């Protein structure tokens, strides 16, 4: 299986350890990973701001670069959802896109649904608070919605449960938005920060030691608030935890 690693812009520029953890994890699991060096932004910031004409060449470029792989794996639910769910009206006449949209996976989705892993040789003796980011939850269906009367599932939690010594923090509102929302955090700063503080308060009452998620954008927002307010919570992307990386001090 030819697997391409897609690294989002903000991870590449600000959190390269997350990209390395994703690569390390996949290689530990026996996956032969390729990194297409020509990759660029997927166009999500432009499309979210209504700038379709600016997003179009990036979408076309993405399909050109990543076509031909058996799978594309990305440590970001929002970027995966952008390609899978929001390229459609831009590339509705692109035959290669029809194939590619079925081959791109968020990291946890790939591990659970494609590799079907059932063990990980990692010790993680911490109480973990799992944040379900909106794109992963609502658009990729990585977990069940708490408001639905349906069987519960949670793919990131399923993976974390494989770790030796892990304990889960029980949140009161387990799938509430963190308030980041990309450009929303800039245009509606006060609302965004209030929502973030609400999520942190829920983790504090639950005794979270390490806060994790599949989207570094959400964690970036929450980590900024945690650092400024000197709260006793560490923040790690789920790829870092699953790859056996140490908790940052």
Automatic annotation (TrEMBL):
Highest taxon of source: Bacteria
Q: Which residues cross the membrane?
A: none
Domain annotation Cysteine-rich: ranges:
3-83, 128-222
Gene Ontology cellular component terms for the protein in this record: cytosol
Looking up InterPro entries in the UniProt record yields:
Cys_rich_dom
This entry's Gene Ontology molecular function terms read: oxidoreductase activity
| UniProt-recorded name of the protein | Lactate utilization protein A
Q: Which gene encodes it?
A: lutA
């Amino acid at each position: 299986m030819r697997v391409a690693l897609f690294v989002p812009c903000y991870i590449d520029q600000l959190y390269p350890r997350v990209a390395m953890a994703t690569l390390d994890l996949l290689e530990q699991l026996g996956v032969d990973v390729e990194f297409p060096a020509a990759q660029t932004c997927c166009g999500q910031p432009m499309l979210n701001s209504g700038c379709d004409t600016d997003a179009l060449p990036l979408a076309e470029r993405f399909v050109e670069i990543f076509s031909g792989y058996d799978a594309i794996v990305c440590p970001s639910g929002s970027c995966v959802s952008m390609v899978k769910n929001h390229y459609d009206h831009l590339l509705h006449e692109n035959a290669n896109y029809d194939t590619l949209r079925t081959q791109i996976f968020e990291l946890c989705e790939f591990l659970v649904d494609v590799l079907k892993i059932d063990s990980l040789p990692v010790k993680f003796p911490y109480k973990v608070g799992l944040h379900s980011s909106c794109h992963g939850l609502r658009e990729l269906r990585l977990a069940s919605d708490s408001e639905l009367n349906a069987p519960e599932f949670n793919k990131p939690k399923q993976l974390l449960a494989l770790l030796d010594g892990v304990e889960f923090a029980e949140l009161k509102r387990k799938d509430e938005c963190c308030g980041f929302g990309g450009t929303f955090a800039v245009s509606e700063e006060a609302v965004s920060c209030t929502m973030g503080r609400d999520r942190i308060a829920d983790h504090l009452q639950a005794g979270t030691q390490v806060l994790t998620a599949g989207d570094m954008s959400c964690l970036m927002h929450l980590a900024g608030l945690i650092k400024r307010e000197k709260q006793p919570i560490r923040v790690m992307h789920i790829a870092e935890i699953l790859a056996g990386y140490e908790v940052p001090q």
